[in-house]
Amino acid sequence: METKHKEISISEFFEKNRHLLGYDNKSRALLTVVKECVDNSLDAAEEARILPDIYVKVKEIAPEKFEILVRDNGPGIVRQQIPKVFGKLLYGDKFHRLKQSRGEQGIGVSGAVLYAQLTTGEATEIKSSIGDGKTHYYKIKIDVKKNEPIIIEDKVIEEEKWHGVEVKFIVEGIYREHKQSILEYLKLTAVSNPHAHIIFDSPSGIIEFKRGTENLPKEPKEIKPHLYGVEIGVLTRMLYETRERKIVNFFIKEFTRIGRKTAKQICEKAGIDPNKKPKQLTNDEIRNIVNAVKDVKLLNPPLDCLSPMGEELMESGLKKEFNPEFVSSVTRQPAVYRGWPFQVEAALAYGGSITQSKILRFANRVPLLYQQGECAITKSISEIDWKRYGLENEIEKEPIIILVHVASIWVPFTSESKEAIASYPVIIKEIKLAVQECLRKLSLHLSGKRKIIGMEKRRKLFEKYVDEIANAIEELTGYKKEKVKEMLLKIIERKSTIGEKNGNGEEVEGNRSEDFR
Amino acid sequence: METEKKLKEIGLKILDDIKNGRNPSIEIPVRTLSNIYFDEKFRLIKLGDKIAKRTYLNTAHSRKFMQTLLIAAEAKKIIEQNVTISIRDLYYALKHTIGDTKENTFEEQNESDPIIEDIEAALNVLREQLHLTADRKGYLAGNVLINDSGDIIDCSKMGSSGWAIPSNVEPEVIKFMEINADFVLVVEKDAVWQRLNEDKFWKKQNCILMTGKGQPARGARRLINRLHREFNLPIYVLADADPWGYYMYSVIKQGSINLSFLSDRLGTPDAKYIGLTTSDINKFDISKNVTIKLDENDKKRVKEILNYVWFKPKPWQMELKNMLKTECKLELEALSSKGIKFISDVYLPQKIANKEFLP
Description:
The structure holds two protein chains of two kinds.
Chain A: H1 2-16, H2 26-47, E1 53-62, E2 65-72, H3 82-87, H4 108-119, E3 124-130, E4 135-143, E5 148-157, E6 163-172, H5 182-192, E7 197-202, E8 205-209, H6 232-241, H7 247-254, H8 260-270, H9 283-295, H10 311-322, E9 326-331, E10 335-337, E11 340-350, E12 358-363, E13 366-368, H11 376-382, E14 400-408, H12 425-464, H13 466-477, H14 481-495, E15 508-509
Parallel strand pairs in A: 1-7, 12-14
Antiparallel strand pairs in A: 1-2, 2-6, 3-4, 3-6, 4-5, 7-8, 9-11, 10-11, 11-14, 12-13
Chain B: H1 3-19, E1 25-29, E2 36-39, E3 44-47, E4 51-55, H2 62-80, E5 85-86, H3 87-94, H4 109-123, E6 132-133, E7 139-141, E8 144-148, E9 151-154, E10 163-164, E11 174-179, E12 183-187, H5 190-198, H6 201-204, E13 207-211, H7 218-231, E14 235-238, H8 243-254, H9 263-266, E15 272-275, H10 280-283, E16 292-293, H11 296-307, H12 314-326, E17 328-329, H13 342-353
Parallel strand pairs in B: 5-6, 12-13, 12-14, 14-15
Antiparallel strand pairs in B: 1-4, 2-3, 7-10, 7-13, 8-9, 8-11, 16-17
Helix pairs in contact in B: 1-2, 2-4, 3-4, 11-12
């Protein structure tokens, strides 16, 4: 009863609370629709090990009314699933599993369908093929009361053999090209997904984000949940759904890193018979388990389940999109927060075509555009002492772009719209360490650069006097000044690039050079 | 060796550096406090043996290296032309904009003057041998007959102005023909010199009355040196009772740090300090109203001087410590508070008669 009630209410809930899902204003709504589709496309392609080609079209068909079309070359969706994927909220293959992915809750794309229908009354058109030569076409709406798809049209159409998904929405919105726009989102997505080729057919022209690498990111592994991270609600559902007959086996089978000994220990601490049937546990007993878990020492979850972008990809992404003078990056070892494995990466681009400072936030490769102030990434960076890294100005005034990527099985967002990462101390610490390491590399680069500028200045200083000196030597010795100058320039060339280490102190015998006043 | 040849040697040495791909350099004796010593035997400040290399390819030296070569080359040129120019002429002759920069070879004369001294020290030649002269500074009056480049000058008949002491007083230029004096009185200030000249002090006391107009220039110092050495005349120095006056006296007596390589010619170790001192305040009953309170700068300088070896004699240590204790200094003009002629009729005659000198 309870679950059913929730499913029915979810669409209605969405109707009333669409700001929580990223539809709080007309400009952001357009972005959210595109983002849901592109995130899904990238996830699907990655899972199928396909290099993604994504086409995004945003066209204003009437004032504040837009056609949004997203087409990918992913594996496609099998016919039977199409209506549910697009026409039922909370339907998804990602919610119940634990694997690093862009989408998580299964609200995303169906939320976009619902938004279209709420704002323009238009149904959403979907075309999909799994590469079997058949292209399925659906026109779908959502029955809000039942949270079920309404199929308006369903047919097989003749098209060339292909695979992938194409979705077309008609939605209300406002198109902008500011800091938190579709353009910015796609640009950053191209940075974090350099293996993707994205074409954006925007109201102001076609923009192409070329593929930066042919290498697909490492595929993340699916893992079972870790007991530390499990909350009462989730535990209740898992207890209800499990096939295990004994609670002790439930712990061993359904969670990662739990052995018989630990499982028994938990039962003991919670005061539950290890042989009790999972479905028979009372709410109090479930609460006792959650409390007992806190007192039991559990092994960390396996850490090889994450797929970081990697230093090379981050650097090539930054180079490709920003044309900087210098890049550095670091991928930290995975760490654990509340039982969930996570991994932090940072990269930094400096100078070149960059004119202002910017922080690029990513969670599971998805750029985060909103709620910057509440995000653990922003907070961590604000705690760093910049002056220690040879930067002359406040960070806001430096031509520097800092990219931070937090990858996790379950990224702790501060809200459902997934725009800010929660500030767990261990996450803050990892982000700081990563950014600081990038800054150390930058600082080396800057000091090297200053040295070169210093050498150049030295050489210029010496060359400035070469004519005067050559003239004087001719006056004193009668030796031709042109010859003297030629020889002097050679010496300058040689001595101002090498021998720098001796600095200004090399020529004093018996005393220091300061003796010249 | 001739100066001209020495200058050429510098050029050839640098040319040799260049031909061998070395960083060109000039060796110059270090003329600072760290490289001078007090020669107890001769009681003079002498130059130590520390040599600094002034090199081209050193950002701290490059400009000075260029300037040194320019001055050496110019000196060679004027010697060849057999003309003598002033150090100010030299500054203007060499001052020009470097290439297409906004920088001049010399911005101020105070950039070129010390380099001339560097070259003198490096080549062990005098400024005059480089055919350079400085402005005249200082005056003299007394029973002295001088042959200045062939012209006979009677220094007892110079009226109110006195004979202006040229920068070059070497025997080749200035010859003493006749001297009738018992001592030389060197006065720090021109105004006081004028007062004493008007009072015909030199006539009354049968002395030579000189002033260096503040810190005496080389000409005046060399003249004092010659008058003492050649005619055995006692040298008495009259200056303000303050650290600057005392230091001026020490320069006349022992030579200066800057020109320590010329101390033999410029210093007069037998010179005596006649006044003023802070002990004069009580001795001559001078009103406290005309004394001046020491400022922080004065105190700092007194403490520095206390540590100079040549101020180590006990009377000087006592005087300097007394100055710090009483925290006051005294200008020569303060004596006028006792009457305009007090200085020439009472103060100086009494001091000379009683031989009340500081060493």
